[in-house]
Specification:
By secondary structure, the protein is mainly beta. Helix content is about 5%, strand content about 30%. The chain has one helix and eleven strands. The strands form four sheets. It has a three-stranded antiparallel sheet with strand order 1-2-3, with no helix packed on it. Strand 8 and strand 9 form a beta hairpin. It is elongated. It starts with 15 loop residues before the first strand and ends with a strand.
């Protein structure tokens, strides 16, 4: 075990290995050892990934992977709908993509329900 390995989230020194992942017993954060260096490099920047793990950026085109009900409405965003020119926002409720969808209008989406096109 690597003696100087620390949790990238809380800095705890009591991490342990579980298969191919490292686990922090204090904050329950899990990470791959090779990703520890990239996590510390990208600490200040929020990284948004799609359902397949691809990095998303402003202006990307994404495809919705499943039917999503629009809260407060009877409308549904169908799976397979392409959304162009997304904007990444700091969504405190998990909705970290702002976009406009044809026929529905402006709305926010969670990145876990889209894939990069």
């Amino acid at each position: 075990m690597d003696k100087d390995l620390k949790c990238p989230k809380c800095g705890c020194e009591h991490v342990y290995q579980d298969g191919s992942l490292w686990v922090c017993p204090e904050c329950a954060h899990e990470w791959a050892q090779h990703a520890a260096a990239t996590d510390s490099a990208a600490e200040g920047a929020d990284v948004v990934r799609d359902a397949n793990g691809n990095l998303l950026g402003d202006g990307d085109t994404v495809t919705v992977v499943k039917d999503l009900k629009v809260k407060g409405s009877s409308l549904v965003v169908k799976g397979g709908t392409k959304v162009k020119n997304i904007r990444l926002v700091d969504g405190t409720d998990g909705h970290n993509i702002a976009c406009k969808i044809d026929g529905i209008g402006a709305m926010n989406l969670k990145s876990e329900f889209v894939k990069k096109s």
